[in-house]
Write a sequence for this structure.
């Protein structure tokens, strides 16, 4: 009994000793796990949040009002996007906190599937990393609480973060240019994410801007 | 010792990987493959001086024109066409200024002085906030006239013209604020007369109005600049999506650095070629302190009461833009000017209210105020936003005067105020407020309604009821119930004024400017921490000096907004602050029989509160001719208002019928008043009498300036995370740790041998 106790004591002592001898390695290990875990956490957050947001969205479709995905959230889902097999819920308000969970809608722009240009911003590392595989002509479907709208990608470009003109309704653009001009009367969708993709550096100044123009609107059947 | 060396080694590896990311070439290649339409700069024909005694010269890009110009190109050039600038034989400019509305008519004559048939391109650089609404081009017998058409129809006309195979009728690229139109098939020796009209609203800055008319000649180059030019472009960021801008700078720069050369050269031409006549009819509505022209000598004379007629004193070389500025003589009192104009049997009016002059001498202007600061501390404000907001708020506290009282309200899921009633801006209260603000952090939901009613409802203590209540609302405005909030503001506003301050990368500017309008205040956008100070100070400065409050216009004693036959914009009058005149524009529908009588009566009066006492003034109108463009001003303001309504409807409900109605009335107004709008375009139609009326060159025009209809977006949020970087660094560290362990174990085994 005593010997067992001693052995235990001895083992834990020797582990401590060993750990002390290897202190640099241990330090590296802990730092490595911390960093890796931090990165993983961001992905996990983006993955898991979509489930909760999905629930809130279903609830919104039922009663037509906004629902928070989790009780302390400061946002609610406004639309659902599906592109080439990907499906995302879009949160209201494009701030850093919301972006960590899902693509977000710029509140100053029109709602998806409504007339006017709707701007949706997403993280290039999580959901919107899929944007790099999109091409001109691809079809995007957006659903808000009352309507469904099909869009077709009309242009893809890279812009500096200050070049907001690519996202605004503008009369300056010639009518027959390949990039169809935005109009207040026709629904259009602008998806924005950081560029370059696959870079590990944070805070790039370039943005990848995809513009899609309405091809077909259908009213959703009244869920009630 | 050696673990330290190892650690250093690891850091080297990590930073080397970081450095690799900065290597841009792969990025650039990726970009050019995606954005195939990026113009190749090298192919731009570089430019070109011609012998100084010919009347035309070649240019790189006609859209870089600094003034109204006509460019000829031989009829059958496939791209890239060569454009040759042609100096006008004769230019006549007539500018009518009414209050702050300037309407300009430009008439230019050009001649095809080559012995061949040519096409031409006319360009005119417009001032900001202006759109050409009338246009006529006469080429020999042909008359091409600008007509306002509904967008769809305009497009059809354009398509039809395209099908007839008129090469020259294609729209080329257009720059912002550049009017352009093509004219095809101009015979040798034929004259072209171009007439355009545009209207702009002048800004009142530092006590002055200023008006600019472009006269600088189009830049030219020594061919030796070509190399230099390509060089500059090579270095410019190829990712900037508008490489033309850099080109433009490169092209203009040499001209500006040697102004004398240009002057001498252009003198050579202008001496025989240019004949420029510029007349300004200035009807300011108030007495003027002085009239100045920055670069040209002018002669001004008074034609009739309040009407100045300004002309160029001598034939001038067109190497500088014409810039005229005038300074209204402000007095110690509020001044009002009133203009009327007939159009289509309706009367259109413009009322301008000028604040008193003095900022500091009249202490009576400093009205006692109650300031309520409302700060959004919801989760969406996390990070940079809350830092900016707190900074703005602390700055505002520093600016309070001893006469003011104040309170602070913060809200997220619930709203709470610092004190039950407002306190005087004395040291101890200020100190308490500061520490309250510093301890705030962002979390929770955005329940704005509670905070708004707390701010608006708060009753003043007895005896302080004449204090002017100003609510300063700092938020990013991410709310879903916009309409409910607007109603709440409308119902509870009372005598208070609501000033919204937008914070963060993408605040809901639409909601906030709308809320400020309903709250008779203004909206300020702060995009970065560095802007906080300037923007907040100018807002607070302004708020401290309200000159005239509770302004309303009455018609025979009745409030204007209650009357059916008078339709005025803006719908709610804000207060008058020092340094910023206010305008109101209205349309008066008159019963057909007593038109004369109704116009001549001075039934309009202006009411308000000046220095805390009721104030009123009868309005005497000065009637003007049609050129004044008051109807255009009214129509533009109405369209702006309708566009806001439209946005409200499409945002909050899917009332498609009402949206259609509004769209229809915007179109109708634009068609009646000959205006370019979001639903109408200006189309050039050939209305030649001699030939069958077929369609010619069709250029849809320039813009309604974006800010009118478009909520500001602010700045794009950052959309990259550190996830990948973190995981990478983590993996590297783990790998090294494992290697270390492995090596250590091996070494022990070796030692054991």
């Amino acid at each position: 009994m005593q010997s067992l106790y001693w052995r235990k004591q001895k083992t834990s002592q020797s582990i401590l000793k060993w750990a002390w001898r290897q202190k640099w390695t241990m330090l590296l290990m802990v730092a490595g796990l911390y960093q890796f875990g931090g990165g993983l956490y961001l992905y996990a957050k983006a993955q898991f949040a979509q489930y909760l947001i999905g629930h809130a969205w279903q609830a919104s479709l039922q009663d037509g009002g906004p629902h928070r995905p989790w009780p302390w959230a400061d946002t609610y889902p406004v639309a659902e996007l599906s592109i080439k097999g990907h499906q995302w819920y879009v949160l209201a308000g494009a701030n850093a906190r919301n972006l960590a969970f899902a693509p977000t809608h710029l509140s100053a722009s029109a709602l998806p599937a409504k007339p006017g240009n709707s701007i949706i911003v997403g993280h290039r590392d999580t959901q919107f990393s899929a944007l790099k595989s999109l091409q001109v002509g691809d079809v995007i479907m957006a659903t808000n609480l009352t309507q469904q709208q099909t869009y077709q990608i009309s242009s893809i470009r890279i812009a500096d973060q200050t070049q907001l003109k690519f996202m605004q309704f503008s009369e300056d653009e010639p009518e027959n240019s390949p990039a169809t001009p935005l109009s207040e009367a026709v629904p259009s969708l602008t998806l924005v994410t950081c560029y370059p993709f696959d870079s590990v550096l944070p805070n790039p100044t370039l943005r990848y801007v995809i513009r899609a123009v309405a091809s077909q609107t259908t009213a959703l059947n009244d869920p009630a | 010792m050696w673990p330290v060396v190892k650690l250093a080694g690891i850091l080297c590896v990590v930073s080397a990987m970081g450095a690799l990311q900065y290597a841009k070439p792969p990025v650039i290649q990726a970009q050019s493959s995606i954005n195939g339409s990026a113009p190749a700069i090298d192919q731009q024909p570089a430019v070109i001086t011609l012998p100084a005694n010919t009347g035309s010269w070649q240019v790189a890009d006609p859209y870089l024109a600094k003034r109204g110009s006509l460019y000829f190109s031989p009829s059958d050039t496939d791209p890239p066409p060569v454009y040759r600038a042609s100096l006008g034989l004769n230019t006549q400019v007539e500018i009518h200024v009414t209050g702050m509305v300037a309407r300009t008519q430009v008439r230019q004559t050009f001649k095809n002085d080559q012995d061949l048939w040519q096409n031409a391109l006319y360009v005119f650089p417009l001032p900001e906030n202006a759109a050409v609404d009338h246009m006529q081009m006469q080429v020999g017998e042909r008359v091409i006239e600008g007509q306002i058409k509904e967008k769809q129809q305009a497009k059809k006309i354009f398509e039809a013209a395209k099908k007839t195979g008129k090469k020259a009728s294609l729209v080329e690229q257009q720059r912002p604020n550049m009017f352009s139109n093509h004219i095809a098939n101009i015979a040798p020796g034929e004259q072209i007369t171009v007439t355009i009209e545009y209207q702009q609203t002048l800004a009142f800055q530092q006590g002055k109005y200023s008006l600019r008319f472009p006269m600088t000649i189009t830049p030219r180059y020594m061919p030796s600049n070509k190399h230099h030019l390509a060089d500059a472009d090579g270095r410019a960021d190829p990712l900037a999506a508008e490489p033309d801008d850099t080109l433009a700078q490169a092209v203009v720069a040499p001209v500006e650095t040697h102004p004398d050369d240009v002057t001498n050269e252009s003198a050579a031409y202008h001496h025989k070629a240019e004949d420029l006549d510029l007349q300004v009819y200035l009807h300011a509505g108030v007495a003027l302190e002085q009239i100045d022209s920055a670069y040209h000598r002018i002669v001004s004379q008074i034609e009739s009461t309040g009407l100045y007629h300004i002309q160029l004193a001598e034939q001038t070389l067109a190497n500088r833009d014409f810039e005229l500025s005038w300074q209204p003589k402000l007095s110690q009192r509020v001044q009002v000017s009133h203009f009327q104009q007939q159009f289509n049997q309706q009367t259109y009016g413009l009322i301008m209210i000028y604040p008193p002059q003095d900022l500091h001498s009249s202490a009576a202007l400093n009205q006692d105020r109650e300031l309520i600061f409302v700060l959004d501390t919801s989760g969406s404000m996390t990070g940079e936003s809350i830092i900016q907001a707190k900074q703005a708020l602390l700055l505002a506290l520093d600016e309070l005067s001893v006469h003011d009282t104040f309170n602070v309200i913060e809200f997220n899921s619930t709203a709470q105020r610092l004190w039950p009633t407002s306190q005087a801006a004395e040291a101890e209260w200020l100190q308490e407020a500061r520490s309250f603000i510093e301890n705030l952090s962002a979390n929770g939901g955005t329940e704005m309604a509670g905070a708004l009613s707390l701010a608006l409802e708060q009753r003043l203590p007895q005896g302080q009821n004449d204090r002017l209540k100003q609510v300063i609302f700092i938020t990013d405005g991410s709310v879903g119930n916009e309409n409910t909030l607007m109603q709440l503001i409308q119902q509870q506003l009372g005598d208070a004024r609501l000033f919204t301050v937008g914070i963060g990368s993408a605040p809901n500017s639409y909601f906030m400017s709308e809320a400020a309008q309903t709250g008779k205040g203004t909206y300020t956008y702060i995009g970065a921490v560095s802007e906080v100070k300037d923007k907040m100070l100018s807002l607070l400065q302004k708020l401290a000096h309200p000159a005239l409050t509770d302004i309303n216009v009455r018609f025979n004693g009745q409030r204007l907004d209650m009357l059916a036959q008078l339709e005025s914009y803006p719908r709610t009058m804000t207060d008058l602050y020092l340094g910023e005149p206010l305008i109101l524009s209205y349309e008066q529908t008159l019963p057909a029989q007593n038109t004369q009588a109704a116009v001549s009566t001075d039934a309009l009066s202006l009411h308000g509160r000046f220095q805390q006492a009721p104030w009123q003034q009868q309005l005497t109108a000065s009637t003007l001719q049609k050129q004044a463009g008051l109807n255009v001003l009214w129509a533009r303001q109405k369209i702006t208002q309708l566009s806001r309504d439209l946005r409200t409807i499409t945002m909050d409900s899917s009332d498609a019928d009402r949206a259609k109605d509004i769209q229809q009335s915007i179109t109708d107004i634009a068609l009646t008043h000959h205006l370019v709008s979001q639903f109408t375009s200006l189309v050039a139609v050939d209305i030649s009498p001699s030939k069958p009326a077929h369609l010619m060159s069709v250029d849809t025009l320039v813009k309604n300036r974006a800010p009118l209809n478009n909520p500001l977006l602010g700045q794009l949020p950052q959309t990259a995370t550190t996830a990948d970087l973190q995981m990478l660094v983590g993996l590297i560290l783990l790998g090294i740790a494992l290697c270390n362990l492995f090596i250590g174990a091996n070494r022990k085994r070796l030692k054991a041998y």
Summary: The first helix of chain B runs from residue 2 to 22.
